Amino acid sequence: MDFRCPGESATPAAPTTAVTSVPAAPPTDHYAENHGFMVPFPLHGERRCEGLAAVGRVQRALEPLRERGDFDPESTRSALTGLGYAVGKVRSYQDGPTGVGFLIDAFPLCVEGTMDRKSTQADAFGGYPDHPGCDRPSGGH
Predict the structure, then answer these.
(1) What residue spans carry the region label Disordered (predicted)?
(2) Number of structural domains in the chain
């Protein structure tokens, strides 16, 4: 039996990506191996349900701003801290003339996304390998 979050359909959604074939030999540039630390952890089980709920709250809080064309990072931050996230754990930034990006560090739950004229997008994840917190690590080896 698969784990489902409350309110989630019992019928799994159709995959949104096509299956691709695996190359016969591994790549020689080691890009994926060297940058794996920048790939966020997916959420599973109850933590996934918490992430989906957080994404829904964030989208509902930001939608009124988007509808009235308020793409000020401070307005976005204020709306997100109004959900109960600590001021020091919410970052927002200008993303073009009519867009805002944001990151909520409620580690081990992280929520990031964007808001622009067309939509409000958010995604929840569980942090990064070998890195505390929710900000995307930089560097490499």
Answers:
(1) 1-27, 120-141
(2) 1
